[in-house]
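Annual report, structural modelling task.

Input specification for the adenosine-5'-triphosphate complex:
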Amino acid sequence: MAGGMGPGGMRGGFLTEEEKQNAPKVTKELLVRVFSYLKPYAKQMILVLLCIAVSSVFSLYPSILTGKIIDEGLYGRDLQKLVFYILASLAVTLGASLIGVAESYINTWIAQHITFDMRNQMFAHLQKMSQRFFTTNSQGDIITRMTSDIDGVERVITGTFTSILSNSITLVVALVAMFTKSPILALVGMVVVPLFTIPTRKAGKTRWSLTREAQACNDRINGILNETMSVSGQLLVKLFGREKYEYDRYEDSNRQMIALNIKESMAGRWFRVVLTTFTSIGPMLLYLVGGILIMKYDSSLTVGDITVMVALLGRMYGPVNSLLNISVDWTRAMAMFTRIFEYFDMPVEVENAPDAVIPEKKAGGEVTFTHVDFGYDEERQILKDVTFTLKEGDCIAIVGPSGSGKSTVTNLIPRLYDVWSGSVSFDGTDVRKLDLGYLRDNIGMVSQETYLFNGTIRDNLLYAKPDATEEEMIEACKKANIYDFIQSKPEGLDTMVGNRGLKLSGGEKQRISIARVLLKDPALFIFDEATSALDSISEAKIQEAIDPIINSRTSILIAHRLSTILAADEILVVKDGAVVERGKHADLVKAGGVYTELYETQFGKGQTLAEEEKEHKHRRKRQGPRPSIYSEGEDQEIS
Ligand code: ATP
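The model returned the following structure:
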């Protein structure tokens, strides 16, 4: 059905230069792909086609019966026939409407199911995309594709496709009926049809470009709203006193929008004036030519026949008009499908290998980097030849200036990204060969930017382990040093954390996310210490929470504070993406390199080395031997 539309030719006149460039190429592959979504619903589609065909024919039938009402009923002065044709006409109209109801039900059902399939497919696909995708694409863009674009699919199926079909059928049936009745009058009717193609094309072009402009303007408005109405955006606006600037920007876009809306609505209005004039020429011409024919030449033609012709011509304008306008909808629909497919076609960068392995023995969390080179994009290499081994049970602290690549190192372990060259292995197996689910299950990461869902503390904890018992949750919270805080809240674990956890302090959020990781009970613990300043009490609480974890499992700490660094077995100093120094604190401080500099500017805070070591030894002693994370009686030691 779509092939007959010939989108190329008709669409051409509608598009501006820019739109021509942006118009998607309607290839056979694209159509096949679009229709592949209809395939599972082929049976229902056939039913819809039948309904459309029958209701299109039925809806034309009363026009044909008008001739009989006039000739046989009125002129023939036959009351019985008159009543019969009137009733038949009403019955057919009712029948067409009832079939129409069935058709729109099945059609909506199909459209909903197709969008359901597409939405789920898209969601599943997007979940497989690497972090790169989410850092590169704006959230607004992703959400638009998931919502507006896919909603558009429904409109295309219930609107565009159906309209093409029913209008084509109506047109063909009307033409056949007209030519059968009187070829001459049918030809006369045809003469006026091209008259309204001109205003239709003109209006279509204006509408198309105005809609595009309005869309762009709407995007701008949404962008401004998204930026300024978010918590952090509003904070920025307030702190920098940019209220007036933002208001002006918003008002300006809004003003453009109303201008466009008025223009668009008026373009449609003028179009209708022209079209109404042209559409009234048709019937008059038919009456004139029909009258001349009856009076002067063709005596077999009746008044009823002419009325039928006028009625049928009247029924043709709508479909012809729609079919001409539909090229705009068609182009839009194809552009929409192209955009959706573009997302579907984005390669999944980090994928489970077909022969991915799930080791049988319990994971130990050993990590080895071998000559790892990596960058987020091709232009800029971040990590350069990084090589190190973290043995099972050990703890490494990664230190270095801001932006040196510390978080990047840890991002490669759970395969948030894959290396350019070299390898990262987990318990001796290249992470690319391990089952992704297994790998990520065994890694617990507490990032600098703690993300909590808008829900209760309990919801956030259960995210890590949906079947966790109350005791396990309390245990984890105690170990994460957050239980006292939770108990102090009247709602306890059911305290709401607010949008992204913003009702909590940075330290509380981080301790809840430590508890969340503890519930997951991973073999490898990665802790990206917050760079933002926490008060010393919060800092101490976090330190107390992570100390036993470090002692009980393999860990990597991205450290910004001396107390954290001292807890590690080995320190890696990263600068400009390369490991420049490694070793123990005492040795590194004396070495006089990057670490010494960092120590003096960032960590030292005037403590003497002897004091630090004393403090460190004291902490180790308090913690005792490496306990299991759920062992009894450990809480007292921590708290
Ligand atoms: P900090 O101590 O400030 O957290 P860091 O040492 O952890 O810094 P990384 O976050 O690893 O540094 O960043 C290393 C470099 O990579 C930085 O220059 C940063 O701009 C860049 N970078 C980080 N994430 C991305 C990303 N998703 N896309 C592109 N570049 C990135």
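The beta strands are 367-374, 383-390, 395-399, 421-426, 429-430, 443-446, 524-528, 554-558, 570-575, 578-583.
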